[in-house]
Structure formats: C-alpha cells, structure tokens
User: Fold this.
Amino acid sequence: MNLVEDGGQQYKPEYGEKNPMHLVPSLQVGDHVLGESVAILEYLEETYTSGVPLLPKDPFLRAKVREIVNIVACDIHPVQNLRVVAKVEKDFGGNRVEWGKYWVEYGFQGLEKIVAKSSGKYAVGDHVSMADVLIVPQVLAAVSRYATKAEDFPNLFRITAECSKLDAFKKAEPKNQPDTPAEAK
Assistant:
C-alpha cells in the first residue's frame, strides 16, 4: 500500500471496505480485519507467543510500556502524520514541517523524561517491548521529516540505535517493504 501514490492508495473504496478509517496498517486474519497499530500489536502478542514477548510479565512494567505506547500512538503520531499535516497546509495555510516538528518535539520532550527513568538497554528495561516498536519509527520519521536532532533527545535516539541493530527492526524498515517505491529504497 503506497501512502502517496495516486493520492494515497488507502483512500480507494476497496481498501475502505477492509478498513473504513482508510488508515494503515491493517491486518487481515481470515475474514477478520484489525485496523489500528496498537490493536494489531496486542493481537500478535496474544496469538503468536513463540517469539519475544512485547509486554513484560510484571504488571507495573506492562503498564509503563502501555503508557509509552499511548504517548506515541495517541499524543505524538496523530497530530503529525501525513493526512493531518497535509490538511493543515492545504486548508488552513499552515506550514506542514513547522507544525509536525513542533508536535513531535513537544511530545518527545515529555517522552524523553519518561524513558530516562524507565529505560535500560531499551525503553523499559533491557528487553524489547511494544514501547520500542512505536518509538523507533517515530524517531526515524522525526529525523527524516523534521530534522529532529539526537542531542535534543539522547535517550530516544539511543533506544532507536539499539533497536536498529536487531534483525526484526531491520526487516521492518520502510525501505525493506515490498510496497516501497524503488526510488525510496
């Protein structure tokens, strides 16, 4: 699914039949479709248990992971994603880069303080969690879209660097996805 080709393939009617929100990602399992990243991650966590668990067993640490996940998924990502910044620019005359940079870095200011207290090697301790799964693409997008600097958010960038060494994160990079246009690889 190409988010920019033809105005965004996720807006085509046939995709809307699967995901009425016309957002990505979507996960189809048999006749069932899930259309939100966190719901998809939790489904995968609960159904594919042979891999590395993405939620710690300790209830407080599980809640800490979910806190970080919600900060990224609810507070940072939505206000700077492509459809929002395009709307800000097109319909309200705003500068999409300034808007996105402001909201990403505003969110990162708080998130940086939270992970400074919760992190070990990764966002919550020394094991990869859902928090890392959401932090890494957000940091990479902040760098590529808004020139966010590592020295401003050293813990978030350190966590991203650690995760980026892992095969699962390498395989998940946009350039490694089959629907990434050749010119973007």
Remarks:
- The radius of gyration is 17 Å.
- The chain has a mean pLDDT of 91.
- The beta strands are 27-29, 32-34.
